[in-house]
Structure formats: structure tokens, C-alpha cells
Amino acid sequence: MASATARIIDGKAIAQTIRDELAAEVRSLAESCGKAPGLAVVIVGNRKDSQTYVAMKRKACAEVGIRSFNVDLPEDVSEAGVIQKVQELNSNPEVHGILVQLPLPKHINEENVLSEIIIQKDVDGFHPLNIGKLAMKGRDPLFLPCTPKGCLELLLRSGISIKGKRAVVVGRSNIVGLPMALLLLKEDATVTVVHSRTADPERIIREADIVIAAAGQAMMIKGDWIKPGAAVIDVGTNAVNDPSRKSGYRLVGDVDFDEAVKVAGWLTPVPGGVGPMTVAMLLKNTVEGAKRQLTQ
Ligand code: NDP
Q: Vertex 172, ends 169 and 174: CA angle to 5°?
């Protein structure tokens, strides 16, 4: 049996380093202008998973010295009610970033709500203008979406070169796959996007020096789909049954870790890879937004 070869990219440790860097930036911002960055986190309804994510984000803010503004709205709030809240936050000078936790209840159109956030405070980077600028040559978005930005940081901080490399992004969602592909293109990779209608995905993925897996399909990418030495970033977070666990389930990625670790050059674990980076990038976007707004 081949022995493990991949270097494991420790997203948790890299995210902690970034949080420490941000805490220092927040302290120096307080010294220079006496203000703290502020992030408003808006949550609608009682979804348990959303509440867990929001609590985690608010706690992470406190740890680096970002003020969080909590907006908790009931499940039956109207779309106009959410928009009105967003508009209030847009004009609040203490708030430098606005995050609306998704998904919103079915009766609210997410696009209508997200496009109300002014781009200067769009720390999730989902505003069509930010995505549009990401897609255009010579334009720079104010914010990059957190998960793709986190994947890029993992590559850069692991010393993996991107320029001229073949990158395959598996998935084309608005929040992960598509902006990830655009970001890698900006970094001068040659990018292919694989999606659910792609014929022969194995063959395409096998050609990649860099694989970003964001399909939401448990352990879809097998060891023999990976080019030896490739850098593999696994965004997928899938719950699979595991009777040996107290919870009855465990989280796995889109990549078959045990197989991939024998072939890849670099590999992120799930959990402990991309997840912690997504939160760290939200904090980074908030600090960057605050610096822009406070020093203008
Ligand atoms: P979506 O469901 O919105 O998108 C999934 C994408 O994968 C779609 O573009 C879909 O193609 C494609 N896809 C689905 N099945 C296949 C397949 N068999 N082969 C190739 N492509 C396929 O998911 P998200 O982008 O929101 O999230 C993707 C994964 O990343 C999920 O597991 C999610 O939990 C995780 N995630 C993790 C985060 C983190 O911080 N760690 C943050 C965000 C997401 P098509 O467009 O044709 O339907």
C-alpha cells in the first residue's frame, strides 16, 4: 500500500494566525482613530444551523475586537421589514460591514435583500456589483466572497504557485464555485469549471494542478481522479451517517480524504480546512471595510 504523501493544510492554524494579525490591526486602528470596526449580523427566523453559524461569527468578532451589532428578526418578518433594517444599517456610521445570514425564509427574495446592502459594507461580497467587478479585467471588487477568498489564502500561505497552473473548480454556485473560478483567473491560473452536467469530470479533474472541490457531494472525488502532487482544497461539508458517533453523523468533504492523501501534494481536511478560513475572511473583510471607511 502506498504511504501518505500529501501535506495537510491546517486551516484552523492558518485562520488563527490571521485572527491574531487582525486583532493587532484592530488595536492600531483604535489607537489611530479611536474607533472599532463594526459588523452587523442579521438573522431571520429560528433555523438551528443558521443560529449556530451566527453565534460563531459573533464570538469570532468579539475575539479580535470587532463590535458586533445583532439584528434578530422573527420568521414572519416581511421582505420590506428586512430591507428597512438593512437600510438603517447602511446609514449607521458605527457599522462597517453588513451580513445577512442565508438562507432567508421562502417568502423573502434573497436577491432583493442582498442588493440593498451598499457595496462599501458588503462584507460577504455577494453584491452583483462586487461579483461583476471580480469578473472584469482591470477592476477590483471592494470585497471578495469569504469562502473563495479563504481558499486563495490557503493556497498562498502554503506557498502553492497559481500563475500559469491548471485549476479545476468543481461547482458553480454564486457563493463558492463561480467567484472561486473568477478569483483563480485573476491570479493567472487556467481555469475549468466542472458542474453537475459536465461530461467525464474525472478526466478533467485529473489534469488539474489545483482542485477546488465545492459540489456538496460526499467523497465524490476519488484518489485516482487526482493528478499526483496536485493541491486539493476541499470546500465540501457533508453530513454522513456514523453510528459510532454520539451525534449519529460526521462531516466529510467532497474529496475521499483517505485515498486523496496518498496522491495529492497538498490537501485540506474536513473539518479544519476551509471552514475556519471562511469565518477568518469575514473578519478580514470587516476590518478592511472599516479601515477604508474610517480613513477616508
Ligand atoms: P450549491 O449546492 O449551491 O452548489 C453546488 C454546485 O456543485 C453546483 O454548481 C452543482 O452544479 C455542482 N454539483 C453538484 N453535484 C455535482 C456533481 N456530481 N459533479 C459536479 N458538480 C456537481 O452548494 P454551495 O456552492 O453553496 O456549497 C458547496 C459545498 O461547500 C457544500 O458542501 C457546502 O456545505 C460547502 N460550503 C462550505 C463552506 C465552508 O466554509 N467550508 C462555505 C460554503 C459552502 P449545477 O450548477 O449544475 O447544479
A: 125
